[in-house]
Amino acid sequence: MSADNLWTADEAAQAVHGDSQAAWSAGGVAIDSRAVQPGDLFIALQGPNFDGHAFVAKAFEAGAAAAMVHAVPEGLPAGAPLLRVEDTMTGLQALGGAGRARSKARIVAVTGSVGKTSTKEMLGLALSDQGLTHFSLGSLNNHWGVPLSLSRMPRDTRFGVFEIGMNHAGEISPLTRMVRPHVAIVTTVEAVHLEHFASVAEIADAKAEIFEGLEPGGTAVLNRDNPWYDRLAAACAARGVTILPFGADEKAEARLLDCVIGAEGSDVATRIGGKEIRYRLNVAGRQWVQNSLAVLAAIHALGADAGQAAASLAKLSAPKGRGQRHKLAANVELIDESYNASPVSMRAAIATLAAARPVAAGRRIAVLGDMLELGEKSASLHAGLAESLREAGIDLVFTAGALMERLYETLPPQLRGAHAPDSATLAPQVTAALGEGDVVMVKGSAGSRMGRVVEAIQTWSSAQSGADRSFR
Fold this sequence. Notes:
Elements: E1 7-8, H1 9-16, E2 19-20, E3 25-26, E4 28-30, E5 40-43, H2 56-61, E6 66-69, E7 82-84, H3 88-101, E8 106-111, H4 116-128, E9 133-135, H5 145-151, E10 159-163, H6 172-179, E11 183-186, H7 200-207, E12 219-223, H8 229-239, E13 242-247, E14 254-261, E15 266-272, E16 275-281, H9 286-302, H10 306-312, E17 324-327, E18 333-337, H11 343-355, E19 364-369, H12 378-383, H13 385-391, E20 396-400, H14 404-410, E21 416-420, H15 423-433, E22 439-443, H16 451-464
Parallel strand pairs: 4-5, 5-6, 6-7, 8-10, 8-11, 9-10, 11-12, 12-13, 13-14, 18-22, 19-20, 19-22, 20-21
Antiparallel strand pairs: 1-3, 2-7, 14-15, 15-16, 17-18
Helix pairs in contact: 3-5, 4-9, 4-10, 9-10, 15-16
């Protein structure tokens, strides 16, 4: 089938129990009129702050083949190709479920406190060399992102990879039952989203919901190095799920044998299925090594070639906001970790910064924004980063936000760069302090909007290019 036949009018109408008065075929599915491509089916979702029905006409102007609606918008031409349903959110979920039901692909689902998107991207890269692989874009991992990703899966997909996230208990269960994976990965369980949970044990139980959707004979890929492994393993045992552990632990079946972590990447040796595999990762950080073990374990469990997958990982580059590195003017290097943050991912990013190699007299500079949704322990978790920063030999620390002020106050005076109430106010203070050869790492929760600092540093770099400047 061609891409134009991802969904025909009759198939979509049957899947969502809707009514289509016109014949059409769609090659894609979109829920944002600004992202509509010619030939897409536009689904007009209604949320608390927006109503997609107001943008149906704009979607048609962009070339949409049809629109799924539960109310007919005004101003449409007569005979506009509409797919009428009782509720478009329910319709999206039904379309995603139908996309999964018709697929013969081998499916992997990924969850975990950190590393979900990176692991999903690694799986997509590695499996794409072994057959048509469909994987969700960005972080489409919630109640609308998962069915949207499923609805976009081509008919002849060989491997599918889907990310499943949560902020509260009970959110993963319906999504994994929709995805119905053959392999489910839990990257790790950490103190993330504590605002919504009484303990990390409850977070582990919420992550274990992913096993509820496993296909019969499915496999759970679990982190043997994580303190919550036994709790997850017990949840698997209760459901009769096969476990494939990964990690440095001697009981791991996908076991880390050796690892040399450098400033630009790592050389890794592992044993999976009794076979030793050596490979190169051109992204820096121990967390990438650990996630790569999960990836290769999952690929082995799918019945694909883990050795070939390991070779494919050499092509990996860090996604935007998740460790992406930029060489800038004045030999400054920017490590962009601005997408999100938690205590464990903060420490991993600090370790990556510690391994970086500043040029000449350059410094290692950390620019940190608030970590959100940490509940009652938030203040102590922020202040607790001071020890990691000191041990890592970081030279200068800038902080933004009310929560990060606790960290700033805890730091010794020589490490304090500046503190500001928000990222926009902090950004010019960071750029004013940059000097020849510095390595600067920017990280914070999405809500702290540390991307503003990244943009400010890149703008600063553009201004330096071709201009004379005296540093420090």
